[in-house]
Amino acid sequence: MTKIDKYLRETLIAISQEMFPHKFLGKDVYARIIDRFDGELEERQKKQLEAGVKLLDSKYGTPFLKLSEKYRIDALISLEHSAFFRDFHGHVLKNLYNDSEVWIHFGYEGASSHLGGYLKRGFSDAAWIPDE
Amino acid sequence: MARIRRAVENDVPMMTYDYDDDSVVLVIGSGAGGGTMADELSSHGASVVVLEAGPRFKESDFTNDEWTMWERFTWQDKRAVTGTSSIAKNHSDAPTWICKGVGGTTLHWAGMCPPIRPYEFKTRTTYGAVEGANLADWPLNYEEIEADYIRAQIKMGVTGRNGMPLSPGSNNYKILALAARRQGYIDYDTGNLAINSVPADGRNACDQIGFCMQGCKSGAKWSTFNSEIPRAEQSGRCEIRSRCMAIRIETNQEGKVKEVVYVDGNGDIQRQRARIVCVAANAIESARLLLNSENNMNPNGLANHSGQVGKNYMRHVVGFIYGIFENPIHMYRGRVCDGLIRDEAKYDESRGFVGGYFTGGVALGLPFFAAFLNPGAWGKDFAEWMENYDHVGGIHFNGEDLAVESNQVSLHATEKDQFNLPIPILNLDDHPNDLSMRCYANQRSVDGLQSAGAIRILKSPPTPASHNLGTCRMSDSADKGVVNKWGQSHEISNLFVSDGSQFVSSTAANPTCLIVALAIRQSRYITEQMASGNL
């Protein structure tokens, strides 16, 4: 198990925010994905992340963290077919939208059997959809 | 409302058979095919042992959480993939989505039971020769299976059939219905699903929990887990052995099946003698087991004189289309596959393809929606789709996949599994008919959502297949098929295939109901053959 340093952590958080930009989600939501990842990281994965960040930092000769949004996105586009990008993207996606604390922000209510399902809780409440 | 509870926990005194008891019918697999065989055979008085590779779950193991349940009961053993289909590109590490556990893939299925059509048993005669396809007529016709098909529908409690009422429609269904109306479709409703709309068969009516594919916590959805398996055990004649992976079928000097070698839950090798063996391990593992059971008399694998074991592997032509609407839908509230349009499930070459397809609603929870909407997508556009999640309505289509001989399950030359057996390779190429049908169905679906008022629409790529068929096809001829019209091996009379591997055509419909019907029929045949001394 290996820890990631502050610079790598900050950069990975910033990358995840560009990958899945939801303004109403605080930085802490993305940070906890990276922090949980940190606890499970193998050496090989850490090296892959470091190498990816190094490439991103070198794209415009300026650290990714200092780039404006447009340039951050361009830098990421240039790497989007790399194993680094694919692996990190998959990991963040799965964890972000599986975070039960953010669900309600997307209008998802999650588990329902303990509440008797949705039969009496809006399963056919969309009166705006025409019947004819 | 009082909750009716079925005895799905193992509170029935277990019948235990000796390893040397060669009077038993040994069923490999406990899903739609194997579970039904166990129930039907034991009800006819047979002694039955079921080997199930996966664990035995309890209803309390089911949780309303998509990823947790994916981990818990998906068959995750490695399958290699080759071929031109998008599955080989997008899902090379997990090309199928089926289950490992008592109940098989009925644990996670969504309950769809659209009707089969008589012409689907005569695809070669009806479509003619289609270049590149290995079409054949089934050695039985619709009239021969109809009574058992209706029995299956009744057993499973299919809505809109045989007195089981249609379910009420969710918000997502209302979108499908609106699209259907505006497109001029006439044969649509909330669908034929094996999910109780009223209490029946000792199981509750559906509460619209919305986690059908994560194990039904109310028991409203039929599965062999909550129906056939408990019933088989309650007969006192059926023993379920879970965590037992069959690795080889052995024959005797007369070439008949003698015993099955398996690895039990402790990792020990066991051998169970059998009078008859029924293979129902789902189309990939059934073919693989037969191929791995090669011996001197059967150098190409058991029951493989025709060379067709593993071949003609069919799935279905599928697509998923989502639309963002101006007002909330909350598609996750309710059955995952709510609604069915049947108009396109017909033979009509003027559309540019043979075979037909069904259209239904589909809903995913937020975690799965993110994962499957547009694999690999990111950035503002993807985020916008996610932020509109509760305004999204979804539909899917499921259509006939033509048999192609080179679409097949074969044994890997070098890579082995944890039992030191070759892993399966799946070769999947798209046939031009698949592409034409998918293109047409996608366009109709897009048009439908548009006409219903969708402001943005996205076509999702096909997901890993839950319908796996055809790898031990039926034929009247021992040269052209693995089994006869009863699912019985041509060469080895006491060896049967009892799952979707038997299918000669995929039909347009989700296969579970037909698998159950074939198992009802096969059980009756086996019982008669045993009584007359032929088996």
Describe the structure.
The complex is a heterodimer of chains A (132) and B (535). Chain A is mainly alpha-helical and 132 residues long. Chain A has helices at residues 6-19, 27-40, 43-59, 69-79, 83-96. Chain A has one domain (6-115). Chain A contains five helices and no strands. Chain A is elongated. The model of chain A has no long low-confidence stretch (mean pLDDT 95). Chain B is of the alpha/beta class and 535 residues long. In chain B, strands 4-11-12-13-10-16 form a six-stranded antiparallel sheet, covered by helices on one side. Chain B has a five-stranded parallel sheet with strand order 5-2-1-9-17, covered by helices on one side. The N and C termini of chain B lie far apart (49 Å). Mean pLDDT of chain B is 95; it is low at 1-9. Chains A and B meet through helix 5 of A and helix 6, helix 9 and helix 10 of B.
List keywords for this structure.
heterodimer, A: 132 residues, mainly alpha, 5 helices, B: 535 residues, alpha/beta, FAD/NAD(P)-binding domain, six-stranded antiparallel sheet, five-stranded parallel sheet, disordered N terminus
Total count of domains of chain B: 1
Give the termini separation of chain A: 61 Å
Distance from first to last alpha carbon of chain B: 49 Å
Secondary-structure-derived class of chain B? alpha/beta
Strand and helix layout:
The complex is a heterodimer of chains A (132) and B (535).
Chain A: H1 6-19, H2 27-40, H3 43-59, H4 69-79, H5 83-96
Helix pairs in contact in A: 1-2, 3-4, 3-5
Chain B: E1 25-28, H1 32-43, E2 48-51, H2 66-73, E3 80-82, H3 86-90, H4 123-127, H5 142-156, H6 171-182, E4 188-189, H7 228-234, E5 238-241, E6 245-251, E7 257-263, E8 269-273, E9 276-279, H8 282-292, E10 317-324, E11 340-341, E12 357-361, H9 366-372, H10 380-387, E13 392-399, E14 408-416, E15 422-427, H11 432-451, E16 456-460, E17 495-497, H12 512-531
Helix pairs in contact in B: 1-7, 1-12, 5-12, 6-11
